Amino acid sequence: MNRPTKDDLDKMENDAIAFYEISCCVAPDNFDIIINCKSTNEIWDVLKIFYQGSEEAQDKKLIITLNEFNNFKALPGQSPKYRFKRFNLIIIKLSNDVTVRSNHETNLQLLNGLGRHWTKTKMILQGDRKIHTLSFFKLYGELQAQESTMLKDCAGLGGLLALIA
Q1: How many Å apart are CA 66 and CA 68, to the nearest integer?
Q2: How far apart (Å, rounded) are the C-alpha atoms in residues 1 and 4?
Q3: What is the pTM of this model?
Q4: Is the pLDDT of residue 165 over 60?
Q5: Mean pLDDT (whole number) for 56-77
Q6: CA 126 centroid distance within chain
Q7: Contacts of 40 (CB under 8 A, 6+ apart)
Q8: Could you tell me which residue, 156 or 99, shows the higher pLDDT?
Q9: Using CA atoms, how far apart are residues 37 and 105, in angstroms rounded to an integer?
Q10: Which of 43, 112, 140, 154 lies in disulfide reach of 37, CB 3.0 to 4.6 Å?
Q11: Coil, strand, or helix at residue 53?
Q12: How far apart are the C-alpha atoms of 93 and 98, rounded to whole Å?
């Protein structure tokens, strides 16, 4: 019978440590799904499917999220803060799916999703070269700064509700 080499012993020790660490991180409610796994690799594969779903399910989630991104529109009467939160959740979902968008593409999509009453603000921001490099959060700051101007323009037209009707 062959005796294990130092490398074999190191691999077994590392596997045991990884097995223990992964097991400790699993919620007690979900521990029963990994209890019969024989290796850390098997635990990892089981947990990945359990939490992320199959590849087909992941593909469907990605398609839905891309559609949400491409079809993003501000809802009538929605505050800029809530609109930003909604769009940011879409960006987070995309980044979780490893779908990275450039700052420029993300910024333009958010601006294009704004209502008609934001046209002047959109033109100002799109005409500025920094729209290419501006972070998503700084764009939100720019929109907040422009909000009072936009609200004044809307008030002169009969208010936001007049634009929606």
Answers
A1: 5
A2: 10
A3: 0.56
A4: no
A5: 85
A6: 23
A7: 15, 18, 19, 22
A8: 99
A9: 43
A10: 43
A11: coil
A12: 9
Can you tell me the distance from the alpha carbon of 88 to that of 74, in angstroms, rounded to the nearest whole number? 13
Rg of the Cα atoms in the chain: 25
One DSSP character per residue, 78-107 reads --HHHHHHHHHHHHHHHHHTT----HHHHH
HSE-up of 91 (CA within 13 Å, CB side)?
Answer: 17
Contact 114, 160 (CB under 8 A): no
Residue type, 112: N
Q: Tell whether the model's pLDDT for residue 11 goes beyond 60.
A: yes
pLDDT (tens digit, 9 = 90+) per residue, 135-163?
888 888 888 888 777 766 665 554 443 33
Question: Measured between alpha carbons, how far is 30 from 21 in angstroms, rounded to an integer?
Answer: 15
Burial (CB < 10 A; 0-12, 13-18, 19+), residue 114, is buried
